[in-house]
Amino acid sequence: MFSTVKSIARLATNKLHLPNVARCLSSKAVSRQHPSYQDTVQQTYGQPVPRTHPHLLKSDELVTGIKLDEFQRRRSRFMEKIAKTGYETPLEANPHIVIIPAASKVYMSDHIPYVFRQNTDFFYFTGCQEPDSILVMTVKGDKRSAILFMRYKDSHAELWDGPRTGVDEAQSMFGVEETLPIGDFEHFVLSYMTEHKKAIIWYDKEEVIQTKIHNKLNEIVKLSHRQSFNCPKTLVHQLRLIKSPSEIELMKKTCEIASKAIAKTMEVSVPGMSEHELFATVDYQCRMKGAEFLAYPPVVAGGKNATIIHYIANNQIVQDKEMILMDAGCEYRGYTSDITRTWPINGTFTREQRILYEIVLDVQKILIDKLKDMPSLDMIYNEMCHLLGVRLQEELLIPKDLNGSKLLAAAYAYCPHHVSHYLGMDVHDTSKISRSIRVQPGMVVTVEPGIYVDPKNTMAPREFHNLGIRIEDDVLVQENAPLILSSSCPKEVAEIESLAKMNQSK
Ligand SMILES: [Mn+2]
């Protein structure tokens, strides 16, 4: 990917191109802010800021779509929650220290990193994109404090890996009470624990994010009065579960990008194409519309591959008369979409494909509509099994004499996955939140029923064998009616047939 020699060459080239940088900076968008040339060259940050990346952020945003005060509000709401826990006596509040590490770089092989993705909870509270940082929040009575531990600026490391924000700039940039160098972390925690012997330490010991920090914390906690950690994750996820107005805007955007990308993929698809090409198309379309990357390895499954729920090999040719099931979503500024569409590669459903497709579509629409009654996701799942069961009985894919739990079990044989999960900064968002609680306005959930006909399924007539269909939309729960965020991706039979027909004659 890169080598010493090439990097040196690149540095030399960059120097030669400095006048070009200056020319670019005089473009309209930047010149409005009148940056001094010297200033731009000298002060760099570990992530885009409005001055260096005016095409990505508005002048008052810390990250695209979100201002600094929202991050501060998230931290103070969280610390409020923490302050309400852990009273030893009704009058004596415990001090608390919460530790949330940033992600570290992960390597696929020697010196070759995977694309960096920040630890979600850390990003939610800071907007900080730098690896190996740590957020510490302390709560003692009415006193609240957020401390960010950052890497020093390091000209040598920055030549290789790009700029760092550094300790000094970070305080005003991220609006925390204090910033300290990462090397001071251990000492800070030790002295805090010495000073506050009864402090509760909040740290997720199950998920090792920074190994060094994890090991140090384990040593520290053993010496402490507590000798164990409290996990902060559930409290964090309770906050993340309800999206703020700015988060809703970002969710709309990420869903719209992926919706249009999948629609475009339908439009170019044609028999004989490989799943790989369709994967490349959706990936390309998402990036060209501004997404950072796909939110997960997409399922691009032609024909019978669609019956494998987590099929991601994506290396087969899609044949005439087969359907393609595409489950893809993207990440836009830290927010994810998760959409599935199934369409006939030649633009026309066969009789059997259409029968099953219409069942899934009808059931999906009913389930989305149910969200107005604020059910739990588990209730929606039970409803799906019931509706699928009845509809499959009508089409003779389930024996007519089954009812009750036997009918539900028969439906389960056609759809072995849950119908919904929470969606947000993570694809399977807020995993600590049970699916048995009722949904509330501000939550975003998926609705994704499917039918998969395994030839081993003895109830299924032969002509339905190996068909796999799923339709998945991303839905914002609102007070009155749910809002489908992925509505710009067509799902009606006539719409997807006409889209999929567009490239057939070429
Ligand atoms: Mn999903």
Automatic annotation (TrEMBL):
Tell me which InterPro entries the record gives: Aminopep_P_N, Creatin/AminoP/Spt16_N, Creatinase/aminopeptidase-like, Pept_M24, X-Pro_dipept-like
Which molecular-function annotations from GO does this UniProt entry contain? hydrolase activity; metal ion binding
What is the superkingdom listed in this entry's lineage?
Eukaryota
Q: Which UniProt keywords apply?
A: Hydrolase, Manganese, Metal-binding
The keyword 4Fe-4S belongs to this UniProt entry's keyword annotation: no
Domain Aminopeptidase P N-terminal spans what residues?
A: 66-210
Cofactor requirements of the protein = Mn(2+)
> In the UniProt record, does the keyword Metal-binding occur?
yes
**Pfam families per record:** AMP_N (PF05195), Peptidase_M24 (PF00557)
Q: Which Gene3D superfamilies match?
A: Creatinase/methionine aminopeptidase superfamily (3.90.230.10), Creatinase/prolidase N-terminal domain (3.40.350.10)
* Similarity field: Belongs to the peptidase M24B family.
- The name of this protein is Aminopeptidase P N-terminal domain-containing protein
Which organism's genome codes for this protein? Trichogramma kaykai
